[in-house]
Design brief:
With 171 residues, the chain is mostly helical. The chain has seven helices and four strands.
Length: 171
């Protein structure tokens, strides 16, 4: 019978080690199935809650820390046609719609389309206001706020890949 020395210096038979590895592999398989089943819905809901919360803040004047950035971005994107108050209402509405669709799982594709449009607005400051966002000392707090949204794009891509798996049509 073969023996194996394990980390503690004790000797174990290969059969005993194989048994432990088999149990570990079965436990890992259970976890993998759970994560595969629950991961994307959890990510979809979490992403929705982020957009719902931050969108709702934008409905309240003076509450969102990015009011000036939102107003300036909409001003640049619309060539000055959209004023600060309308910019906040539009942004808040879009983010709340995205949040509601992702949290509820209803009209997710429409929410993802609106989300794609919001990402244009979210990342536009990097183009329009680069010099204000990045100084010789590094990125400003506002730049960091914008850059952290890269993770939201990644999360949205995972959610979209799952949502777009089904063909368009009736259920």
């Amino acid at each position: 019978m073969s023996t194996t020395t394990i980390g503690s210096g004790r000797t174990s038979t290969a059969a005993g080690l194989d048994s432990i590895l088999d149990q570990a592999n079965r436990a890992q398989a259970v976890l993998q199935r759970f994560f595969a089943r629950a991961g994307v819905p959890t990510l979809r809901i979490a992403l929705g809650l982020v957009f719902l919360a931050f969108g709702a803040l934008k409905f309240l004047p003076g509450v969102s820390p990015v009011e000036e950035l939102v107003a300036a971005t909409w001003g640049a994107l619309s060539f000055g046609l959209v004023g600060p108050q309308l910019a906040m209402i539009l942004t808040a509405s879009m983010e709340v719609v995205v949040g509601l669709t992702l949290v509820t799982g209803v009209f997710v594709r429409i929410g993802l389309l609106v989300l794609a449009v919001t990402f244009v607005g979210i990342f536009s400051p990097l183009v329009f206001f680069f010099g204000e966002l990045f100084t010789a000392a590094g990125p400003t707090l506002t730049a960091q706020y914008v850059l952290k949204d890269v993770i939201l794009v990644g999360a949205a891509m995972v959610v979209a890949a799952t949502a777009l798996r089904r063909p368009i049509g009736r259920r």
